[in-house]
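Title: Prediction job returns without error message
Component: structure pipeline
Severity: low
Priority: P3
Assignee: unassigned

Description:
Job completed but the reporter wants confirmation the result is attached to the right record. Sequence as submitted:
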Amino acid sequence: MSLGDERETSGGYGGTGQTRTRLPESGTDVYGGGRRGGRSSSRSLVTVVGVVVLLIAAIAFANRGGDDSAQGAGDENQPSSSTTAASGSKPVEGKAGGIPAGFARDEEGAQSAAANYSVALGSAEMFNTARRHEIVNTVYAPDVAANRQADLDNAYSSEEFLANIGLDKDGAAPAGQSFISRVIPVGTKTTSFSANAATVEVWYTSLFGLSGDGSTNPVSESWYTTTYQLTWVDNDWKVTDFQQKDGPVPVGRDQRASTADDMTKAVEEYGGFTYAR
């Protein structure tokens, strides 16, 4: 990834730029059991039954009346529907530097701004000098953008850094390969808010690497949470600072990795999103 959060040598951005992929040992059950056996017909049956049960439960829930008086005394410990349901206003219509702009001066607006800025700062466009300057000047507050610009230029022009992630000194991928850097926000939350400042956490997964024949840095998935400090300036939310940490990281499914060609095709054909809370 490229986020104004450079990758750390330990696996974040900035140092090597490489992501860390932790895989369970061969045959190990990540939940603590013994070796995994092959897929069986009984497992398939359980899966089918589980899907049917979920469908029945969903239908029953959809047809349930609006009377909340039937809830038991212990329901206060259950998550509300707002915990997991999509919420918030429609995405903003304005753009600045190709990035959504004109966010509302409320918590939803701050969260939406942080999510959209994560996508821009984590994109492959950050490896292009002209585009990087445009992104930084768009998402950062004017009083910090210049200093941030200099820091990022030093990082992204480092031939050692670029070589470590498989790019040449100009930030270009080898012939026959595609460079992929994409951030996909999973959720956001506000930890502090006032009319002029907000602190927003963005939990996201990222795809980073080179797809194509002969890639020594194949596309891998990582999970991070970045905390953004935002300020209200020029009628919009802008970044003043951030901190990044690993995770939360879900347990990986036993899915087979796609081929390099399939990954390249997917990234080229599936566009990104404008995010709203």
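Comment from assignee: result matches the submitted record. Confidence is low (pLDDT under 50) at residues 1-74.
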